[in-house]
């Protein structure tokens, strides 16, 4: 049985899970893969994890370059995170001709173009199954299972923290701040949750999935990103009354002139497959021109689900190393950026929430502005007001252009009968 030697950089939560799988399931992995996967070296400055997993002292080093420069190591696993030192480690490993496995979606989204070019020049590959969807094998599915397809669209719930928050707000009527605090106490949200609740984590992930569809990266600054911080329990209630569920969606639609790629709260009809994806789970709908729509569901984070994805990459690359198979890294567009269709050009239905003074003609004034911008109203909800309060009004539109909607809302917010800033949620079917 041929050996594949592995070096692990970073033994945090996921790294600990990877070490546990490689050490404790060694016999099982040999039986199922035909490879002897040897964890030869672990680099981490924190020795506490070594004792927790009972890792032999001889495997441990606090210098990642001892591992990278070891000629016996075939595969380097990078689980440090971030976009600075992690990139230095990956670049150094690739230049040494080593295969690399990473879960670092932020690094790939920001620097994937250069990393893949370096891997190609070094005639090795980068495995990144764990970068999207935790334990869901979405990367493998898109690279191989859907290889016959031209991907038409991807709709994904790609962040467990925000999905947990929206689920609790929907099922229990909780306010955003209360759910966020609960999520932090349970370990579902970071002390600083900005990356998650601001939508940026999901944006990194949809960029990775878009790359698999187009063989080119999207410049992160071109992705329109909105988070869930402005969603209120009132919006959740109105959505329910209208037959919708609000989810933070990462969307990529592939067209001849480019990709419509964005992340924002989205209202989905209750019978949509993604509305049943709740709590910290992830769900991804991928539509291909041959297969139609397929769905992938599972735990999007956590020590062992993510470790499962990391080890799956190790196995695939290990087989390639042993078999000396050809390296296949997509090279279309010479690693250039794919054009992004500005969000101002999209067309969809909209949910509009505003607060109007209870005065005759208030709704008519709003309707007139929408009409001038060629926006048709599908339905209106007006709640009874309390004494002295403005009236909450919700309007659902037919399909409209984003730029027209934004111009209309600017005009509406200038009306004397409108209190505060109007709010929109995009609707996808």
Give me some keywords for this one.
429 residues; alpha/beta; Rossmann fold; Dihydrodipicolinate Reductase, domain 2; Alpha-Beta Plaits; 3 domains; eleven-stranded mixed β-sheet
Describe this structure in words.
Strand 14 and strand 15 form a beta hairpin. Strands 7, 8, 9, 10, 11, 12, 13, 14, 15, 16 and 17 form an 11-stranded mixed sheet that branches. A 6-stranded parallel sheet has the order 3-2-1-4-5-6, with helices on both faces. 43% of the residues are buried. The model has no long low-confidence stretch (mean pLDDT 93). It has 429 residues and is α/β, with parallel strands linked by helices. It has 15 helices and 17 strands. The chain has 3 domains: 2-134 and 303-335, Rossmann fold, CATH 3.40.50; 142-299, 2-Layer Sandwich (Dihydrodipicolinate Reductase, domain 2), CATH 3.30.360.10; 345-427, ACT domain (Alpha-Beta Plaits, 2-Layer Sandwich).
Q: N-to-C terminal Cα separation, in Å?
A: 52 Å
Report the count of strand segments. Answer: 17
CATH topology of the largest domain: Rossmann fold
Q: From the alpha carbons, calculate the radius of gyration and give it in angstroms.
A: 24 Å
Question: Which range does the strand content fall in?
Answer: 25-35%
**Class from helix and strand fractions:** alpha/beta
- The CATH architecture of the largest domain is 3-Layer(aba) Sandwich
Low-confidence stretches: none
Instruction: Tell me the number of structural domains.
Output: 3
CATH class of the largest domain: Alpha Beta
Sheet of most strands: 11 strands, mixed
| Shape by Cα distribution | elongated
Average pLDDT metric: 93
Report helical residue fraction. 25-40%
Separate helix tally = 15
> What would you give as the CATH superfamily of the largest domain?
NAD(P)-binding Rossmann-like Domain
């Amino acid at each position: 049985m041929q050996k594949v030697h592995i070096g692990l950089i970073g033994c945090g939560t996921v790294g600990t899970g990877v070490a546990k799988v490689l050490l404790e399931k060694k016999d099982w992995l040999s039986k199922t893969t035909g490879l002897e996967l040897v964890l030869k070296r672990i680099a981490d400055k924190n020795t506490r994890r070594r004792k927790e997993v009972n890792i032999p002292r001889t495997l441990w080093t606090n210098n990642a370059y001892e591992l990278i420069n070891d000629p016996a190591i075939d595969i380097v696993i990078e689980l440090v995170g971030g976009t600075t030192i992690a990139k230095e480690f990956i670049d150094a490993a690739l230049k040494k001709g080593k295969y690399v496995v990473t879960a670092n979606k932020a690094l790939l989204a920001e620097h994937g173009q250069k990393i893949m070019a370096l891997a190609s020049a070094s005639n090795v590959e980068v495995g990144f199954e764990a970068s999207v969807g935790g334990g869901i094998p979405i990367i493998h599915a898109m690279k191989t299972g859907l290889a016959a397809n031209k991907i038409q669209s991807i709709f994904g719930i790609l962040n467990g923290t925000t999905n947990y928050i929206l689920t609790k707000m929907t099922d229990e009527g909780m306010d955003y701040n209360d759910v966020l605090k609960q999520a932090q106490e349970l370990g579902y949200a970071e002390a600083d949750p900005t990356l998650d609740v601001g939508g940026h984590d999901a944006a990194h992930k949809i960029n990775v999935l878009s790359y698999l569809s187009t063989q080119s990266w999207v410049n992160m600054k071109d992705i329109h990103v909105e988070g869930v911080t402005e969603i209120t329990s009132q919006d959740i209630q109105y959505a329910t009354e209208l037959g919708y569920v609000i989810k933070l969606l990462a969307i990529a639609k592939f067209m001849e002139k480019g990709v419509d790629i964005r992340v924002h709260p989205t209202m989905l009809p209750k019978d949509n497959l993604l509305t049943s994806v709740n709590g910290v789970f992830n769900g991804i709908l991928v539509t291909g021109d041959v297969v139609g729509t397929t769905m992938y569901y599972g735990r999007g984070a956590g020590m062992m689900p993510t470790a499962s994805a990391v080890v799956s990459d190790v196995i695939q690359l290990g087989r390639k190393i042993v078999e000396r198979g050809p390296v296949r890294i997509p090279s279309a567009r010479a690693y250039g950026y794919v054009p992004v269709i500005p969000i101002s050009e999209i067309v969809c239905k909209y949910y509009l929430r505003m607060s109007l003074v209870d005065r005759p003609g208030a709704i008519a004034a709003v309707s007139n502005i929408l009409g001038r911008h060629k926006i048709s109203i599908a339905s209106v909800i007006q709640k009874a007001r309390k004494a002295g309060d403005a009236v909450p009004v919700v309007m659902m539109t037919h399909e409209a252009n984003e730029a027209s909607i934004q111009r209309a809302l600017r005009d509406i917010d200038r009306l004397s009968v409108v209190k505060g800033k109007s709010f929109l949620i995009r609707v996808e079917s």
